[in-house]
Design goal:
homodimer; DNA-binding; 7 strands; 11 helices; two-stranded antiparallel sheet
Amino acid sequence: MRSYGQYCALAKALDVVGDRWILLIIRELLIRGRCRYVDLLNGLPGIATNLLAGRLKELEAAGVVRREAATAPVATPLYELTDRGRSLEPAIRAFAQWGSQLLGAWNGDEAFCNHWLAMPARLHLSDTAPDERPVTLEVRAGAEPLSIEATGGTVQVRPGPAKAPDAVLSGPPHILAALLVGRLALAKAVAGGATYTGDPAVLRRLQPEAVPAAAA
Amino acid sequence: MRSYGQYCALAKALDVVGDRWILLIIRELLIRGRCRYVDLLNGLPGIATNLLAGRLKELEAAGVVRREAATAPVATPLYELTDRGRSLEPAIRAFAQWGSQLLGAWNGDEAFCNHWLAMPARLHLSDTAPDERPVTLEVRAGAEPLSIEATGGTVQVRPGPAKAPDAVLSGPPHILAALLVGRLALAKAVAGGATYTGDPAVLRRLQPEAVPAAAA
DNA sequence: CGGCATCCTCTTTGATACTG
DNA sequence: CAGTATCAAAGAGGATGCCG
């Protein structure tokens, strides 16, 4: 990107991460942690492959992303955020929160990846029963599932299936998002096309206080 | 901007404010409040006038900016943020904070406007003596001065001169920024080229606890 | 295959000139 | 002052090719 050439913290930030696709690339790396080029490509529907390659180089040069070359046991290079990159998380969260009000019902021709639900999930879920045994919820909306684990007071969200999920949730994206975030009660989510199998307590345990409020 | 076409809150936010120059336009409106087209143009060195005009239209269409047409007493149309626009402030602050670590010494060929100091000032200053009478500090680094007022526990920062400043601060941008933010003690700032006239207590009153720490 | 680099077209930007 | 008009240059998007 062309620099704004302004002595201003915001302008400096935008010199580095203001380019098209950059924040979405960082979103992917925040959600997935270290991953391959092709994982990024899949999580960024619409990006041209040359553009992704170029952006990754810029981000590496800027010290936001680190590229680990493929060595012995690993077949392909891996990308991950540096500390500086991870420190963008609060800003990205703030933006996502602002954008969430622009998120209406899902019109089927928008791209959707299940793991994107990790962002609202990390923001709004917590383990409300730290002393009970760990439980896992698997969420399926797109191709690859997402697993959410409540264990010892913390919530772990990561892409990929859960080994032995205590509950499984699936349905249309906007219903799942609203349900996880606590804007929609389970009954209404089911009425809206969601399916929940397994122990209902798993979902309740993850939700701070939103469920009782929204259940009305 | 071309939409990312992704059902994701962050992508939706970027569909609206991800375009080049947009966040800087919003920065200007956050600092200045309601203002004229030329004010924006002056506060955004490097922007092309057609681009500013186009962005303002997009932002108006998106409900982020409101344009008030010139009526009776006012000679020219004015622009200001809507509530939705103002609600971007936390996200912009978060980004600016991230960018501040990229802000080194001021190399003279970067553009600088004095009123940009309002962002770090609002973030880091507070009125530490709410019960004393209001005091005003005037900051001069660029063309137009900035006035910072501590009154009754709150700090007001706005572009423009102060009526009767209790103190006046001037000097090179990076020195003033570091001083205001508390990263630099007054003595060191003066050694670095800053000038401070008036009551030293004014500056101390504005700074939470940073000065004692950084004074060492 | 996964991980890019090239080539080409189309859109956006930047610079400047011009008008009500 | 507040923009619009014009045009060249840069960047994005898409397809495809190359290489381990």
